[in-house]
Write a sequence for this structure.
């Protein structure tokens, strides 16, 4: 089978041939090889500067909690802890566990050993995210990040009356995002459907209890207790910092996967995929967010989600460098480069969440993003 890409232009559909797709794949492979060969001291200095900043914000936040009875100081402490948790999860944890710094051969930055400030065990996250999501990006019934098992994020996903509560489900997932990520590997929806048994999840649950227990003890017992009479102030501050981190992570991740124009795919469409076709799927199934250098750091550079899906194991600080080249390749081959401000992308995500919650017969069909992925059968397979 070969993949044909049809891109709508003013003169009609532009066909991207299998040979062109293969050539695109070779150009992206060459880009990756060039960046990999250039990794070195600057990348090492960058990640250590982020770790130093993250630890500084955490220490400052913990220290200020001892004056948490003063509202301005409490707010500053919460802000500092929030930044610390965001950096730990987004620019450090997510990227280190992708293996982006394994080349440094340093235990503290090794993807097999690293553990983050999050209730989800790193090992489980690497299975649901690194393997399932990045291998089967936006393939319906394969990529469980496509709606996280509770949201309808494409028109092809079946509608039922429970979908009416989707905006509420999305809100709950947003404010409790780390807990949603923790439960992701349990595949609760498959347990409900009888496709999986509780017995199959015993080891996963044990790991979650251990990790979540440590996090709860740290944030809601030990550190509050260390501030003595300010226990409640510190507990509230830690809870708020976790809430801020959850909302931020949800927003960045959903803006990279579900804004207007992002496509999903069927298993049939992606069967026997070539390297070039895999690259094309990543481009069509991802979106970027524009912003300042500080914004990109705070997003873990997942504001460059297209580049991340193309090269998940390259250090994320390199994504801004290669983004213009990736965009130029999209233009060269007639592929869209989905990007926009945070406000724009967040708006289209929530519009989609509300729209796909309603019965299909009451909702106008969404406009095509302009790119159609089809599979062509070989002549011998159709008897020609």
């Amino acid at each position: 089978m070969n993949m044909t890409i049809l891109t709508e232009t003013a003169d009609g559909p532009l066909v991207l041939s299998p040979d062109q797709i293969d050539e695109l794949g070779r150009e992206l492979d060459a880009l990756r090889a060039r960046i990999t060969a250039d990794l070195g001291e600057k990348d090492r200095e960058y990640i250590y500067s982020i770790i130093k900043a993250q630890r500084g914000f955490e220490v400052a936040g913990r220290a200020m909690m001892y004056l948490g009875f003063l509202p301005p100081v409490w707010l500053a402490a919460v802000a500092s802890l929030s930044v610390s948790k965001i950096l730990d999860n987004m620019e450090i944890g997510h990227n280190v566990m992708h293996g982006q710094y394994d080349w440094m051969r340093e235990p503290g930055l090794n993807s097999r050993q690293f553990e983050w400030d999050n209730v989800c065990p790193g090992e489980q996250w690497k299975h649901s995210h690194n393997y399932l999501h990045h291998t089967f990006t936006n393939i319906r019934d394969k990529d469980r990040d496509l709606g996280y098992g509770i949201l309808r994020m494409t028109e092809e996903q079946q509608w039922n009356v429970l979908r009416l509560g989707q905006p509420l489900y999305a809100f709950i997932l947003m404010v409790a995002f780390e807990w949603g990520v923790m439960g992701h590997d349990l595949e609760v929806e498959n347990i409900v459907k009888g496709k999986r048994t509780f017995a199959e999840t015993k080891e996963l649950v044990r790991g979650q209890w251990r990790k979540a227990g440590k996090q709860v003890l740290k944030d809601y017992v030990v550190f509050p207790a260390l501030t003595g009479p300010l226990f409640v102030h510190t507990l509230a501050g830690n809870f708020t910092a976790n809430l801020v981190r959850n909302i931020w992570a949800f927003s960045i991740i959903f803006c990279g996967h579900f804004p207007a124009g992002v496509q999903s795919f069927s298993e049939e469409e992606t069967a026997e995929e070539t390297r070039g076709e895999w690259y094309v799927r990543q481009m069509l199934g991802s979106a970027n967010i524009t912003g300042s250098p500080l914004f990109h750091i705070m997003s873990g550079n997942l504001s460059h989600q297209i580049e991340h899906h193309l090269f998940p194991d390259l250090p994320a600080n390199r994504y801004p460098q290669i983004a213009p080249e990736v965009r130029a390749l999209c233009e060269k081959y007639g592929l869209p480069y989905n990007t926009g401000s945070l406000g724009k992308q967040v708006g289209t995500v929530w519009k989609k969440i509300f729209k796909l919650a309603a019965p299909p017969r009451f909702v106008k069909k969404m406009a095509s993003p302009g790119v159609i992925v089809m599979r062509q059968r070989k002549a011998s397979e159709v008897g020609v």
